[in-house]
Write a structure and sequence with these properties.
The complex is a heterodimer of chains A (207) and B (188). With 207 residues, chain A is an all-alpha fold. Chain A is built from seven helices and no strands. In chain A, helix 2 crosses helix 3. Chain A starts with a helix and ends with a helix. Chain B folds into two domains: 30 residues; 136 residues, 3-Layer(aba) Sandwich (Glutaredoxin). Chain B has five helices and seven strands, in the order H-E-E-E-H-E-H-E-H-E-E-H. In chain B, the strands form two sheets. A five-stranded mixed β-sheet of chain B has the order 5-4-3-6-7, with helices on one face. A two-stranded antiparallel ribbon of chain B has the order 1-2. Classes of the chains: A mainly alpha (207), B alpha/beta (188).
């Protein structure tokens, strides 16, 4: 009986030892899992941190950075960041709310354009037509003015030929200024000759 | 011998033309702007052809989320421009609602509230505060206000059954009688 008891005690102690070693192994696993979890939490929190920052209230500077690019139609010529009216205050609140929701500057501006029209922007959207139309308008105006000048230069009276056209017709290929210079030269020569003649006469009479 | 004077060299003609064209264009833009500013609102006699007003949820008309003015031919339409930030609008809000409650059962008159340059949360607070129940919606991209060339809020436009504008009220109504005076002749 005693030997049997001893045998039982041995078996029991073996089981206890096995259980103890198992529990030691388990505690190590738990420790290992805890460390892993801590590392994982730290890693995730590093990435999550910027996202949670978007949820914070934006500063006035952040709001005004966008607000200064917008104009409320009610208060023309006053940028939204300095406009004191109630309507503009509401708009600034909308910008603040959208920023806290993590919306980008472009998204916020697009929202205002959809709600209130493109005229709220401080500069027109970068479309080709925004720059093309004024250019075309200027060129068209220049062309019309050119045509206008050309028609003014021509005779205004029907059937009348200007002196310039007449002379140009007589001397094709020659510039009008050259024609004038050529025609002026004999007259100048005659004038000089006359002065010289009078001077000569005066000298003779004085002698 | 007399030297002929050297020909004067001025600004090339093409530069002169471009400068003049630019100035003429600038003047044209200023002129159009001034003309538009002096035009004022759309005048009575003008046919109100086409615009679509999206409606706030809870302020739909017969379950529809938007209303086309062309679909309202045969009814007198009262178009009221307002905003939650507009203090004078508050003066007439109760009168407009009372008039709506008076004419709604006839089915011959429709009131439309157009919320001008406003934010929806504040607009809803305003509508709730004054117990307004007629169809209301935002003036998206200020298309409707530009169509009517409104100068401010509140402004109210009365359109007859044929879609022709009959009366423009600039500023708030001070009594329900002022609203009746405009609607009743259009119902005859």
């Amino acid at each position: 009986m005693s030997s049997a008891r001893k045998q039982v005690d041995k078996e029991t102690s073996k089981q206890v030892m096995r259980a103890l070693s198992l529990s030691q192994g388990n505690s190590r696993s738990v420790q290992f899992a805890s460390i892993l979890l801590a590392i994982l939490w730290l890693t995730v929190s590093l990435f999550v941190q910027p996202v949670s920052a978007q949820g914070t209230t934006p500063t006035d500077d952040e709001v005004n950075k966008i607000a200064k690019q917008l104009y409320c139609p009610v208060c023309e010529s006053t940028p939204l960041d300095v406009c004191p009216t109630e309507a503009c205050r509401q708009w600034r609140d909308v910008i603040r709310t959208m920023l806290s929701e993590g919306r980008s500057e472009a998204e916020i501006k697009q929202h205002f354009v959809e709600q209130y029209g493109v005229r709220v922007l401080n500069e027109p959207p970068n479309r080709l037509v925004s720059y093309l139309v004024p250019g075309i308008a200027i060129l068209l105006g220049a062309f019309m003015l050119l045509r206008g000048f050309q028609s003014w230069k021509k005779a205004t009276v029907p059937g009348h030929t200007s002196i310039k056209e007449e002379r140009a017709a007589k001397s094709p290929g020659e510039k009008y200024s050259d024609i004038q210079a050529r025609e002026m030269k004999p007259a100048q020569d005659q004038y000089i000759a006359r002065i010289e003649e009078e001077l000569r006469k005066r000298n003779e009479s004085s002698h | 011998m007399i030297d002929s004077p050297a020909p004067r060299r001025g600004v090339p003609i093409w530069i002169q033309i471009i400068v003049w064209a630019f100035l003429v264009g600038l003047l044209a833009i200023v002129g159009v702007g001034l003309n538009r500013a002096q035009q004022g609102t759309v005048q009575p006699g003008h046919s109100i052809d086409e615009f679509t007003l999206p409606l706030f949820s809870g302020y739909e008309m017969d379950g529809q989320t938007e209303v086309r003015i062309a679909d309202l031919r045969g009814k007198v339409v009262v178009i009221n421009f307002w905003a939650s930030w507009c203090k004078p609008c508050e003066q007439e809000a109760a009168e407009l609602q009372a008039a709506w409650e008076e004419y709604e059962p006839t089915g011959e008159v429709i009131f439309l509230g157009v919320d001008y340059v406003d934010t929806e949360p504040e607009a809803r607070v305003y509508l709730k505060k004054f117990g307004i129940s007629f169809p209301n919606g935002p003036d998206l991209a200020t298309r409707i206000s530009q169509y009517f060339r409104i100068a401010g809020v509140p402004e109210t436009y009365f359109v007859d059954k044929d879609g022709v504008l009959q009366y423009v009220r600039v500023g708030p109504f001070t009594s329900i009688d002022q609203i009746r005076e405009q609607i009743d002749p259009l119902l005859k």
